[in-house]
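Shipment paperwork, digital attachment
Item: protein structure file
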Amino acid sequence: MLDAKLIQLTQSARGDAPLVESKRLLGGVFTVSGGLHTWTNNLYYSPAWLAEAGVVLQLGHGGGECPSHRQYTSGDSWEDEDDWTSDEEDDNDVEATAAAHSRSADGSRPAAATYTGNQTAMVIVDTTGIHRIPVWWCGCEGAPSDEMQLLDMALYPASHRRVKSCFTFRVLDDFLLDNLECKTSALNFYSKLRRTTNSTFPDQVPSVPAVGHMKDMMRHGFGYPGRARPGPGDLTFFCAACPQPGVNLPPEWKEDENQLIYTRGFMMDGNFSAEHLKMRRPANDVAISDGTGFMVGEGRYKAHLKVAKEVKSKSSCNNHKAVNLANADRHKLEATGIGATACPRHGCFLPHAVVDFQKGERQMNMDYSFSQALGRNMENIQRVILLYDINCQYGVHLRQRFTESPYLHMPRRLEIVQGIGLFHVHGHQDACFMRYSPTFIPGAGLVDGEILETLWSSLNKVSGSTRGMATSHRKEVLNRHMNDWNWKKMINIVPALRKKYTANLPLMEDVTTSYNAMVASADPEMIQAWTVQMEEAQRKRLTDVKAMDVFDIRTDRAPSRADIQLSLTDKETQHGLQRGTIAWLSQGIKVQEAHARSQPSQVPTTEQKIDLLNRRKRLQTRVDAHEGKKARYIVIEDNDEDDNEKDVDDDLGEEWDAVEPDDVFWAAPAQASGNAIRLAERVAITLPSTLGHARCEALNIQQLAARELKLREGQANDTLHQIRICLGQKSFLFRTSIRSARSQHNKTRLGETSML
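Attachment content:
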């Protein structure tokens, strides 16, 4: 770390350890409460800098003084002082240089040029602020290079030629943690440091870049002499649970009869929020870690895109936007989004398998991502499960495309089982569910195939800040966040799996018991025929996915309430019921449904009150019509009817106790019984279900109750059908509108619409 005296003075200058009494340091510089100051014109204190307090950073001897101080030669002189001096300053002009040496009146910045002696002024960025401090370089024979001298003092140089600024390891660690957990951009973090240095005039503090590549090199063992350069994806963490020969599989795994547990799973998806603007001067872009992270290397990827055939196809399934807009172009963007491959069970990004989209989500882009994923620890693994939102279109000519491209690789005997995530498969045609749902894929387990959506939600928090970055910087930031996600998965996967296993272990016994009971109740010959049929379909699905249609059990739609009402009405007289009984029961059920739709809002407006009054009048008319006919179908004695009315009034008593006197008028009670006010939507409708089982037996209306139960089954079928329609509509809106929305505001509004 920095010299103890330097750190102590730095903290005092920032006010972390304010001094109560003034104390003179050096050259007229004092420490007063709030930091370093100098007595100006014998009138007032003005802010001072560490350099003016005589602080010097000595390199090469552990903070001690070097007997052979070295200064830069003329060839090493600084050429750019834009951060500290004006563009018009002439370094050869003695008067201009002297003026630059003088501190500004408000103490906002120190001298701009080098100091006397064997010193070089350097900008040092720390968590306590940004400082300009003289540096003594070690000039002894055999002294380390300038970069190594700085690294030995826990300082990381911002450049490797004529070093003018550097960062403490502490500030780099602080930024990386802020960026990963709080999604703080480099610009915002550096702005905070500038305000920490000078809260009054932060624009007077210079701007310098920051880097974090060295930490990745050290973490993965490439920061030491004698190590080879990192290859594709070597600076990444990957899933610790996915089967990987030579990593987490026993030596005899190939002899295991249950090869399904060694199936590798891949899920692919695109993200159009991670777009990137074209650079104004792309020649200035310098890649530090091209291809060593999750983003693929530029050279080979671009070579693949040049030779890959662009197929403009229209979806033969439903209207999939990823297919129809695959060739959409946006001229201001270098990348319209990214595509990635992840393990579907544990949710870890595949190293060196994240690609940029030049237009839309084209097959050539996702082919390269899948090819890179297949090259990651896949020795001797012969079966993979590939989940993709549009696999019914993407997988048609998959092997042909791999064969035609010299940049795509796939093992010859690899068995690829294609699937579609459980959320998106319901937006496809009905046949796609049996053919591609993970539910019908052996070895897939209980996965939804949508885990990349959760990964995108975290990565999108930094997509806004990466949109205008340099190309290489954007990739480094995305790599860092994806690596952090995989690291969190790795350290949390054991407690997470242990918790889930413990919670589901008791359920396994119940499931096993139910399954055994179901098998015992079925015909053994039929079970054998079903097993043969299922195994044959699974074998054929690799060459003809239509073989899975055997699981499509065509059943008629469950009867609706109207269907059941029609059937029961035709048989009224056969069962000794009066004509119109079924219609009266159905009318009562409809009135009860109208009750639920007539509930007032908590804080109604005047217009809502008027609308509520009108709805109550209409509802009361329907209630009266139903109750007026009950005597024809249910004979209730006077005492029984009084008891029923009493029960209804008692049920409403607590609710009406909370009604304010001013609310009684707008509530407009539909009817009154004595002093009790009853609203139309609170009146109990006379039906066998409201009377109860005991009353129905006493009144001898069991047949009427049985008919109502049939109508209730139709009511439940209608409700389930509406739920299915709403889920399908929500899935459709997500694919066509929410996912492609350009702002969080639009996504939120569209999401609220889908919930209506």
